[in-house]
User: Which sequence fits this backbone?
């Protein structure tokens, strides 16, 4: 397998990105093509024993920085690291592209390089999200902040197909995220989307869910706009971290509690593992004619490793072809 990794994307690039790529190549034997400013990437590679690994560097002279307007930057900088990396996949030199960089930049570059699957209005950034019942597919989680109702309705269809392929759910239940079930609740966008979702999905559409039902895993697919989805993802990550910190502080403040904690340590570790999003933190840009994943901007080497592993799992499962065939066949334009 050959994966392309944007070496210049993320808050800790290229240092942590290269380190994660080295870890992944060493543990899997897969080929990782690092795309970025050649001198900087090679300088980082020199810090590792990587001579026997399948790691290659492809030069990209430009980058899309996190503080730039992504659409403008992607169009102005034709040889940015995202575009160069995606062209390698488009031209058959690799299987998938992964970045920790600007989500909007990845969306714009993806639309420019791969184009959308025929009939798709706009690609959506999706991710598996944990619940007491397993996982559900959640999106948009940050690619499209300003959305149209017809986009969300179509995303519900595409994400249902993705849930079938990724989660093995034969008849996914699709919901729209809102702040209440009562008539008139929600934004103008959610109210306008509801009727379109019912028309597009039929019996598969279960209606709106509030955050508590979403977290409880009542739906297999939860659809929202990219602004709301990104806030929800970041809030849940912050709450999980906060809860673990409070539990740790309260236990260490009491000697008797520390004795009990020693006995309960396996349970605490298991709980922390269930709340750890690193292993599924790379989202799929669904709707493109190419496999593109986007990881956390703050990713360090461990998250980079898992983002590459997630990407490889999608390649191995032939997710792109499964989704593309079903989207072309069934999705309402």
Assistant:
């Amino acid at each position: 397998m050959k994966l392309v990794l944007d070496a210049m994307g993320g808050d800790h690039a290229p240092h942590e990105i290269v380190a994660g790529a080295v870890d992944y190549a060493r543990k899997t034997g897969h080929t990782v093509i690092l795309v970025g400013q050649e001198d900087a990437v090679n300088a980082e590679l020199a810090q590792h024993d990587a001579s026997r690994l399948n790691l290659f560097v492809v030069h990209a002279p430009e980058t899309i920085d996190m503080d730039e307007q992504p659409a403008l930057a992607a169009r102005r900088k034709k040889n940015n690291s995202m575009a160069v990396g995606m062209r390698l996949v488009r031209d058959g030199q690799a299987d998938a592209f992964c970045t920790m960089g600007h989500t909007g930049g990845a969306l714009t570059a993806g639309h420019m390089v791969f184009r959308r699957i025929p009939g798709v209005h706009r690609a959506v950034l999706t991710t598996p999200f944990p619940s007491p019942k397993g996982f559900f597919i959640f999106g948009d989680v940050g690619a499209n902040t300003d959305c149209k109702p017809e986009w969300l309705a179509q995303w519900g269809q595409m994400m249902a197909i993705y849930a079938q392929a990724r989660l093995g759910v034969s008849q996914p239940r699709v919901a729209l995220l809102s702040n209440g079930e009562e008539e008139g609740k929600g934004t103008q966008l959610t109210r306008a989307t509801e009727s379109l979702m019912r028309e597009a999905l039929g019996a598969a559409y279960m209606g709106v869910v509030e955050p508590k039902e979403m977290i409880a895993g009542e739906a297999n697919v939860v659809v929202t706009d990219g602004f709301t989805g990104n806030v929800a993802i970041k809030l849940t990550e912050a709450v999980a971290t906060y809860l673990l910190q409070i539990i740790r502080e309260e236990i260490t403040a009491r000697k008797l509690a520390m004795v009990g904690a020693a006995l309960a340590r396996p349970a605490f570790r298991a709980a922390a593992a269930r709340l750890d999003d690193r292993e599924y933190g790379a989202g799929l840009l669904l709707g493109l004619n190419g496999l593109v994943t986007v990881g956390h901007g703050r990713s360090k080497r461990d998250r980079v490793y898992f983002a590459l592993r997630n990407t490889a799992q999608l390649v191995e499962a032939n997710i792109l072809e499964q989704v593309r065939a079903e989207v072309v066949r069934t999705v309402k334009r």
About this structure: The CA atoms of residues 147 and 225 lie 6 Å apart. The mean pLDDT is 90. The first strand starts at residue 2 and ends at 6. The chain has two domains: 1-120+287-333, 124-278.
